[in-house]
Amino acid sequence: MLHFSDNEFDRRRKALEKALEAAGLDGILLFSPESQYWLTGYDTFGFCFFQCLIVGGDEPVLLTRSADKLQAEITSNINDVRIWIDNDQANPAVDLKNLLKEKQLLGKRVGIETDTHGLTGFNYKRTIDQIGSEVDLVEASDLISKLRLIKSEEELTYVKRAATLADDAFDAAVTIAAPGVDEGTILAGMHNAIFSGGGDYPGNEFIIGSAENALLVRYATGTRKLSANDQLNLEWAGVYRHYHSCLMRTLLVGKSSQQHKDMFEAGVSALLACEEKLKPGNNMEQVFMAHCDTLDRLGMGEYKLNACGYSLGARYTPSWMEREMFRAGATTEIKPGMVFFLHMILLDGNNKVAMCTGRTSIVSEAGSTPLSRLPLELVTV
User: Fold this and answer.
1) CA distance 197 to 176
2) Which of 5, 152, 265, 375 is least buried, going by the fewest C-beta atoms within 10 A?
3) What is the rounded CA–CA span in Å between residue 93 and residue 96?
4) Residue pLDDT, tens place only, 28-65
5) Cβ atoms within 10 Å, residue 250
6) What does the alpha-carbon distance between residue 136 and residue 12 come to, in Å, rounded to a whole number?
7) Distance of CA 11 to the CA centre of its chain
């Protein structure tokens, strides 16, 4: 169940050790499932409970529940797994304190990941109550996050496979979509294409909506059947070994309006302008400004959003989005090996018209390369 070579894991461990030394940290408390997966291969949704990987001193030690003991043994290279015992009065933060004492990290400078769904506010408070005065805790949510930004060749292999699965899902949607077809049937076909191709669950639900629901950019429960003339908005990801490659398209059913055509052309122009800026040496804000400048110039500025994409990688529920986004003030420097999803979302709330186009690219020394085989064409079914 380990999906990377020993050399790859060794490279990551050394990169983390170097980053800890540069930050002046004696260790780090990893609560992010993405960090745990990246460093050790540990693969579980058990992060919905109290779970911490302690790195510092010697070998990493995982503190988790009994339900995840074998999960850790089978999916990861973690050799030391400790269990906190379930009961209504259990406080695993006490177990964490005891482990820090055992690893001689009390009184030391230790990083902690707080910007993660793997650490709830409730559990953070319990942790602070137990070790806040015993350890010099340092916010370090971005430490491994930044290391994960640049993908290795082994990772990029999975990203490219995810991209193929994303394309396959779109082909399935186009084949199925037609007047009278329920959105749920389209979703089923898209997921079938991905799972049949060996893919995984995505970090969040696929986004689907028709008619006025095409204006939604989040999944919401309740499907409908497509009308004779309709708009169908889709945002989805191919997923392989938890690595995501996202796409976004608005399909038209029946006749296409002139507004749809105009918005589509503007979106494509903005996407290409952003991809032109998506190259080493630029930062993420420069890409965002290409999005703004193009859409404003084409008279579509009032329909745009305040962000136009984000970094991608191996992600867990509830979101496939990485922390870095294309938006105003985004200072992250673009470097080779990074993977980004760019989406041009145009929403006219007054007239209930949506038109969205997006795709994933890998950055190299030469610039960026889109991963999708899909042409940038307005699709009508």
Assistant:
1) 18
2) 375
3) 5
4) 999 999 999 999 999 999 999 999 999 997 899 999 99
5) 25
6) 25
7) 22
